[in-house]
Design brief:
Elements (H helix, E strand, L loop, with lengths): L2 E9 L3 E4 H12 L6 H4 L2 H4 L4 E4 L3 H6 L2 H28 L8 E5 L9 H9 L6 E5 L6 H15 L5 E8 L11 H9 L2 E9 L5 E3 L3 E4 L7 E6 L2 E6 L3 H20 L8 E4 L4 H10 L8 H10 L6 H12 L9 E7 L3 E9 L1
Length: 350
C-alpha cells in the first residue's frame, strides 16, 4: 500500500526565549550553584541557537519545583500545542477532525493519562471510535519513529485517514537543583514545539516510503532521561558526536539497502539537528561536505533543539524550498535518539 502526505504543520508556544536573555538568566540562577558554569557559559554564544520558545514564561524557571508543577505545565502547554498543530495540518489537508480514523501521538517530556489526543478530543471533535496510538520514550528520534508508525498504520488500512502529532516541551525540565553538565547543555539547546502530519492512501504529490531503524547494542547510557523526585533530568553522553561520526554511515547504508536505495540516488538528507556538533558529525559521517545541512542549522538557530518534532520542522522548510521536487530522487529523513537508535524515512516529491 502506497502512503501519501496530505498536510504538514509546525507550531511553537507563545513564550519567546532569546538566547542572550537565556544566557543572562542562567548566569543568575545557575552560576552560583555550579562551579563549572563559567567554563560552559561561552557555549551559549557558539551553539548556533539564537531563539527558542517555551510553554512557560521566563519567571517560571526561577521557581519551578518538582513533578507536580512541571507536569501541570506540560498538560496545559502540550494540549494547546496539540490542538494548534493538529488543526493546522487538518486544514492544509482539507480534512475535518471527525474524518480522522487513527491518531498517533508522540511525546516524551511529560505524562498524560488519559493521553493528549483524548485531552484534546472535545475541542478538536475527533470521533469516539478513533484508534489511538500514543508513543512515549522515543526522545529526539520520535519524529521519525512516529512518522514510520503512522505510515505503517496507513499502509495497513487503505481507507483510513491517519493524523500524527509530535509534541515536546523540553524546557520544562530545566534543573537548578542538580546542575550537571548535561543540564547546562540542555539549558543552552532545548526549546518546545510541535508538528503534525496527515497521511492516507489517497494520492498526492508527496509519497512516504517504508522506513527503517537501527538500535545499537550496549548504548543505553548515551541518551535519555534520569527520573528523580524533581522530575526528568537529561542524559547526554559526551561521546555522541564521535559516535555519530564513526557509526552513522554504516547505519544509513544498511537502511538504504533495506529500502533498495543508494546515497547517490538521494535528493537530499533531512536530519534532526541535535546540536551544532552533531550536525557537523552527520556531515562528516555521511561525507556530505561542510555546510550541506544548511536548513538543519537554520532550524537550530530559529527554534533550538525541540527533540522529536525538530526533524519535521526541517522537513517542512525543505519541502517549501523545493529540494528534490520532481527529480525522482527521494529525500531521506533521519533522526537519532535514546536507545541509542536511529530512524530513517524516504520521501518522494513529484
Amino acid at each position: 500500500m502506497t502512503v501519501f502526505l496530505h498536510g504538514l504543520s509546525t507550531c511553537v508556544p507563545p513564550h519567546a526565549l532569546p538566547q542572550d536573555e537565556v544566557r543572562d538568566r542562567a548566569h543568575e540562577i545557575l552560576g552560583p550553584r555550579f562551579k563549572g558554569f563559567e567554563r560552559l557559559a561561552p557555549v551559549f554564544d557558539t551553539s548556533g541557537v539564537r531563539m527558542r520558545y517555551s510553554v512557560a514564561p521566563f519567571d517560571w524557571f526561577e521557581n519551578a519545583q518538582g513533578w507536580t508543577d512541571r507536569n501541570a505545565r506540560y498538560m496545559s502547554g502540550a494540549k494547546a500545542l496539540y490542538i494548534d498543530a493538529a488543526a493546522q495540518a487538518l486544514d492544509k489537508a482539507g480534512w475535518t477532525a471527525d474524518s480522522v480514523d487513527i491518531l498517533v501521538t508522540v511525546s516524551s517530556t511529560g505524562i498524560a493519562t488519559p493521553t493528549l489526543d483524548a485531552q484534546a478530543k472535545g475541542e478538536m471533535g475527533f470521533r469516539d471510535d478513533c484508534l489511538r496510538v500514543p508513543l512515549f520514550g522515543l526522545g529526539c528520534a520520535g519524529g521519525i519513529g512516529g512518522l514510520n508508525t503512522a505510515r505503517e498504520l496507513a499502509a495497513a488500512n487503505p481507507a483510513a485517514k491517519v493524523l500524527l502529532v509530535v509534541i515536546e516541551t523540553c524546557t520544562l525540565h530545566f534543573r537548578k537543583a542538580r546542575p550537571k553538565k548535561a543540564d547546562i547543555i540542555a539549558t543552552i539547546l532545548f526549546g518546545d514545539g510541535a508538528a503534525a502530519m496527515c497521511l492516507s492512501g489517497e494520492e498526492t504529490a508527496i509519497r512516504i516510503g517504508r522506513g527503517a531503524s537501527k538500535t545499537w547494542d550496549d548504548t543505553l547510557p548515551i541518551m535519555g532521561w534520569e527520573v528523580d523526585e524533581d522530575g526528568l533530568g537529561v542524559v547526554f553522553d559526551r561521546s555522541i558526536p564521535d559516535f555519530v561520526t564513526s557509526e552513522f554511515r554504516a547505519a544509513a547504508d544498511h537502511a538504504l539497502s533495506a529500502m533498495e536505495l543508494t546515497h547517490e540516488g538521494l535528493g537530499r538528507i533531512v536530519s534532526h539537528p541535535g546540536g551544532a556538533k552533531v550536525v557537523d558529525a552527520l556531515e562528516a559521517s555521511l561525507e556530505l561536505g561542510q555546510g550541506y545541512l544548511d536548513v538543519e542549522r537554520d532550524i537550530l538557530t530559529d527554534y533550538g533543539n525541540m527533540s522529536a518534532p525538530t526533524v519535521l520542522f526541517v522537513l517542512k522548510r525543505v519541502l517549501e524550498r523545493g529540494d528534490a521536487k520532481g527529480s525522482g530522487k527521494p529525500l531521506l529523513a533521519c533522526a537519532l535518539g535514546p536507545g541509542f537508535s536511529a530512524g530513517f524515512t524516504p520521501i518522494w516529491v513529484s
